[in-house]
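note to self — DONT lose this again. spent like an hour looking for the file last time. sequence + predicted structure for the chain T wanted, 315 res
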Amino acid sequence: MRIAVLDDYLKVAPDLANWQSLNADVSFFSDFIAPETSAQVLAPFDVIVAMRERSAFPASLIEALPNLKLLVTTGLRNNSIDLDACRQKGVVVSGAPGDPHSRGATAELAWSLLLALFKNIPKEAENMKQGLWQTSMPPTLEGKRLGVLGAGHLGQCVARVGHAFGMDVVAWSPNLTQERAAEAGVKLVTKEELFSTSDAISIHLVLSDRTRGIVDAASIASMKPTAYLINTSRAGLVDQDALKQALEQSKIGGAGLDVFDSEPLGQYDGWRYVPRTLLTPHLGYATPENFAVFYTNVVHNIQTWIDGSPVRVLT
C-alpha cells in the first residue's frame, strides 16, 4: 500500500506519528503540488493525506486517481474535497481532528496581528535596528471599539480578550441573535454599524456560498481611516480587490492577514507588496500540539480503514 502525505511544509509529519505501524510505503511531500501536475504525481497512491484545505480535490482530480481508495483530511471539515465525487467513485473520506486545547490558537494569532498593528510594532522594531527612537505614538486599546464578525468559539475567544483590554465589543453575523450575542458576552449591532464604527474588526466566519464575499467593497469603504481589519478565517470572505485598493489608497489603517485566495502564497504574489499589511503564512492552526494530534489521528484513521472499520467517515 502506498500513502501520500501532502503539504508537509514544515517537514514535521514523519516524526509526529507512528507511520511505521502501518507497514506501508509512506511518501511525504513538503512542496506544494501544482494542480496541473497533481493527477500524475498522485496516481500511484492508494491513500492520500490532505492537510486541511491546502490541496484541492475537485471531481476532475478524484476521477483521475485510479488507485485512490482512502482520502484522510486533518480536521473534520474540508471544503476543498468534492465529497460527492468521492462517493460516486467509492473513495472513503475520513477526518482526523486536532488537539482540543489548540482550538483557541487562531484567536491568539488574531490578537497577535491586531496588537502588532495597533502598536506599530513591526515598524518600530525595524526602526530600532536602524538606530532610530520613538517614530510613532501607538494609541491605546481601552475605550476603542472591537467588531467581531462571527460570534462562534473563536469569535468569543477574541471578544473576551477585547473585554479584558477594556474595549467596547460588538458583533454581527448572518445568524446572530440578541439571545446568542448576550450568551457570548457581546453587543449585537448591524453589519453597517460594525464596519463604520469599529476601530478593529476581526473575522471569524465559516466560508460558504452564503458568506463568500460578505466583507464587500461597501463594508470596507465604510471603515474608519484608522481602522484595522484582521482575517484569520478564509480569504474568500473578503472582497480581495476592494481590500487591496483600500490599503493602497490609505483608506483604512491596515490589515493583518493570515489567509489568502492562493496558498501557499506565490513568491511574487502581489499581496506581498501591498502597504499597511502584516502578513503571516496561515499560522492560525499550525501549532506543534495540533499537528501531533492531527497526524496521530490520521494514522489511526488509516489503520481502522485497513481493519475494515473506518472511523470519522465524512462521505
